[in-house]
Amino acid sequence: MQSVASPWKRMQYRAAHHRRTVEVICPTIATMPKSYYPPESNLKAPDGMRKTRTIIAEDPHWTLALVPRLSNLCLQSIASNFEENPIFEQLTPSQRRFIQERLSPSLPLHITANLISDGIYWKRCCELRWDLCDVSLYGHSWKRMFFERCLENMIELFIPDVTEPKTILDMVPHCRNYVKRLDICQLLTPVKEPQRAEEEELASEHEYEGPSVDHFDFGILLDKLTSLEELHLVYRVKHCGMNFEWKMFEMTDRDCESLAKALMSCKTLKLLRLHQSHIEDNKCRLLVKHLLDHPSLKVLDFSHNLIGDRGARGIGKLLSRGNLEVLNLCDNVIRDHGAKAIAHALSKNSTLLSLNLRLNRVRDEGGQAIGEALLKNNTLCHLHLGGNEVTAPTAVALSEALAQKNILKSINLSCNNLGEAGGKALQGAMSLNTSVTECDLRLTEVDEQIVAFINQVVWTNESLEEERRAREKTDK
């Protein structure tokens, strides 16, 4: 065997485009001298011997099949039997990552919720359920994203008198420590059973006495979410199609009462946004009544509703008995009396930083009252009075505050007919002001030269503000 083996030792290396192979090449019979011919019996390779061995050179981890480590076998066993025997806290960080990469995303939440920490497992769960997963919107926490979106979906698909409240209450023990924000885009109404022809005739003569159009009762949930800080609500039904009814797009009295009590019980809430829900004065006053002296509420957004002067008076009371920093009442029906009530509270307030009254009807009486309140207020930085039918008298009142106090940083008076007199008053005030870095005077009938002068002052103030911030940063 050894006497004929020397010709078989010649090796030839061939390079492929994407991978290299090392082959043991047998010399062909046509090219071999007769004396080199091995016996016929030796031309057959032994059983199991491979003539070609492939090496994936670009894979640094490539190796021949080896017996796996016992530790890896144990970890794989833990991952495969995690539901029967959940072992996680006793493992090292690298072992935990190994387990999270192999656990099934369909494991019951009562096992994983309070055991598996934030990481690759919850990322896999999120990406399996939703196509768009922007974790930056959730404080870069995949676990928070998972539980917030799961709870939001359950509430948005809750059908009163059909869905059992227990389905949501069973979720609470798993998610209460991780849910910081709820953004509810729809709230379904009870299913209305189809009426027969005779019932339709009776309904035309008398009011239909079916189930009330109430929505999900937040009273069973909010007090149990111990980490909830933000609540965004819209009382509407998306994609209702031909089943459209106006009642689908408004909050009922019972909805308002249950929500008000729930908000009072949620002591950690910092932001409440309740918009596009047809909230009128009575509902607004009821909500505000339960928010008085709330220990943590900082931001209140009642934009795009039907709040009038009575509701504005209630909100003025909340400014006096609360710690609000941002108040948004954009696109309501507040007029001069409501604006005066808010201005009165503003003159005594020491916490509010931003006030948005855009698209109301405060007119000059309300605008002048707000301007006078600014002379007494020392905290308000952002004021929006765009589209409020204010004219020159309001501009004059605001100019006095701008000239005497350097507190306001942004003011928006767009879409109001301020005229030449209002423009000149603002020009004189801005020449003395060093704090305003944003001033919107579009569509105000103010002379273009005056607008250019005010813009130049704003740019100068903005440059000074940037320099001040740079100095503070270097000092730190």
Radius of gyration based on Cα positions: 36 Å
Strand content: 5-15%
C-alpha geometry: globular
Contiguous low-pLDDT stretches (5 residues minimum) are 1-43, 204-211
Total beta strands: 12
| Average pLDDT number | 87
Tell me the series of helices and strands, N- to C-terminal: EEEHHHHHHHEHEHEHEHEHEHEHEHEH
Helix content: 25-40%
Q: CA-to-CA gap between the ends?
A: 83 Å
The biggest beta sheet reads: 9 strands, parallel
Q: How do the strands of the widest beta sheet line up side by side? A: 4-5-6-7-8-9-10-11-12
Treating each run of at least 4 consecutive H or I residues as one helix, how many helices? 16
Q: From the helix content, strand content and strand pairing, which structural class follows? A: alpha/beta
Pfam family, one: LRR_6
Keywords: Cytoplasm, Cytoskeleton
Subcellular location: Cytoplasm, Cytoskeleton
Protein name: Dynein regulatory complex subunit 5
